[in-house]
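Quick start: what a row looks like.
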Amino acid sequence: MPSASATRPRLLARALWGGAELAVTLGVVLLLLVAHQLWWTNREARAEARQTVHALEREWGPPASRAPTRTPKKAAPPAPAARADDPPASAAGTATPDDRPQGDQAYAVLRIPSLGITAPIAEGISKHGVLDKGYVGHYPGTAQPGQVGNFALAGHRNTHGEPFRYINRLRPGDRVVVETRTAVFTYLVDSTLNQTSAGDSGVIAPVPRSSLRTEYGYSRPGYYVTLTTCTPEFTSRYRLAVWGTLASMRLR
């Protein structure tokens, strides 16, 4: 019968081996979880987003090749005050009943040529219903495309399609195109607020201006678009915002 002194090293060796196996198993599980978040969710969300965009394009048909174009007066910064001779919301392309969002269904398409972004836009910014599908979400209560006010959007920067991962690379003059059933709206980027609090509601106000960094934003009513996402990457601590103004629209 082995002595107690001989048994103890064997038990210790078994314990160490078992601990090593457990550590390896946990490591593999963690790697699989990371792969799922960083690769699989992107793959699934991008596939769904592409299918949704294609479905909208088939439903709408091609844009009219000779559709008239309207250009809001003084759309570039500084943004103009609303005036009697500025195009009213209806002339600038207020959403018709066919354009208005139904629940969290996609109702428009966002295209940012300089970044290669094409993504569906849906109403709301819920993760499960909108953002995790690879969609861009429209902040409820903000303006619709082409309306006076602020057409404010949110999108994931990392995972689940990450459509807004590189919006920090946008520069003044870059195009942000929004297509609906009835019209195509082209906004031009004005400026970027690289970091602000997640609670900075001024970023998506009708006249967008940071409530915390008041040197960033606009001072007069106009036709605006706002793109928001989390920053720094792989965190949700702060928000990044990109602002632009409406340059033109054409009917489909």
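That is the whole record. Residues 35-251 form a domain with the Sortase; Chain: A; fold (CATH 2.40.260.10). The first helix runs from residue 4 to 60.
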